[in-house]
Amino acid sequence: MTLKRRVVFGGTFDPVHRGHLAVANAAHTALAPDEFRFMPAGDPPHRDRTFASPAHRLKMLDLALKPYPWFTVDRQEIDRNGRSWTSLTLATLRQTFPEDALILLLGQDSANSLDSWHDWECIPELAHLVIMSRPDQVPVYGPQLAREIAQRTVTDTASLGGCSAGLVLPLQVPDVPVSSTLLRKRLATRGSLCDLVPDPVAEYIEQQGLYRD
What we know:
- There is one protein chain.
- This protein has 9 helices and 6 strands, in the order βαβαβααβααβαβαα.
- The protein has 213 residues and is of the alpha/beta class.
- The termini are far apart.
- The relative contact order is 0.19.
- The mean pLDDT is 92.
């Protein structure tokens, strides 16, 4: 029996950009999930603050994802008080979907530091991990994390539908040279965003005067 597969793609999305969309579409094509959720962080543990408010970040996500009906936005971390711990988010989703396969998308840089996350050991027990890397990236794991990943790694995407959690799948994704940091730097110097974000997002940023200071 193949379980329903529900993908979670977390981040601050501050702002969402073409790189996010490129890797999300590559993952969607490779994994063919039943559901794909963008999960914007409300209070990200790895940053002191976000540059745009939750309301603005949600609006930009809605604008960016409008052409992609296979993506949805999950606001639970925005609406929840306290830090946006991934382990807590996955535990909440597991309560809602006890029989389904949960799949957490991670970039390679994030995966490298997974063993520094809050309650990181329980994350593979709650969801499969799909670690997305660019062609030039290599894993840099600490010893315990390396052992944990090695014993869970599979290469067949179909394996993720055979159980609800516990596997790790490496996935190569396109190298799109754009980041939210680059976007904010360009905006600070009044540069154009036309090649970095979808047009509706660029228009919204300009209308709202975001990221200018």
